[in-house]
């Protein structure tokens, strides 16, 4: 269902049942002279037009990440989710928040939905649910979804959405302990505090050559590279610069993820300010070596 083209090259499935609206990336998708408020109004209008074109009765739900992770650490414009959720509510369309990346402190709050004022019908969770140590995922639903599932399950005598490894006791034990540690050690509060320091440190990266945009929140950031940042001119061979910088970073002891010509940083929630300084120094060194 993703809108990432690379995901549809090989093991693809028919996707005619999935429709996509615009990526809410103001820096790259704005029209010349368009304010962020006008851009948001355009996105909201476009979404409503799409719903009316398709027919609200044909749309089961909208699925969205609070911020796009694998899409390049793309943060929505201010007020985006309240604006689009007003449209969704008008047409009685549920909103599913994909919290697989943003959940459990990554944005400085327990969930990205808190950070971006989202009122989701349901949330999908994974990754940090076990701190990445063991496979486990979960879905949280509100009463409007839970009650019909409960009623239908009662009719057939069993919860009809389970599978072989659902509720595996080892995975559940690890997840339970992880949640206990998050609360005991105040990990989310630490991530919020150090996240502010991290984002301030990332602002210095804008001074480096070829850096066109630095975007992030909490303990996640994306550094986008341009051939000519001042005129927002990208490199001719998309993805090459990001891979080169990623390789140099790894040589210098810093692991980043290249996403085309954006390098994503996602440090551990327990990182210290001193370690943020080390990360920033290694990133600056790598950018200077990449010239």
UniProtKB/TrEMBL annotation:
Key words of the record: Aminotransferase, Pyridoxal phosphate, Transferase
Transferase recorded as keyword: yes
Ranges in a coiled coil: none
Listed GO MF terms: adenosylmethionine-8-amino-7-oxononanoate transaminase activity; pyridoxal phosphate binding
Pfam families attached to this UniProt entry: Aminotran_3
Highest taxon above the source species: Bacteria
Entry keyword annotation includes Transferase: yes
Gene Ontology BP terms: biotin biosynthetic process; gamma-aminobutyric acid metabolic process
CDD domains: OAT_like
Signal peptide start-end: none
Record's protein name: Uncharacterized protein
Organism in which the protein naturally occurs: uncultured marine bacterium MedDCM-OCT-S12-C289
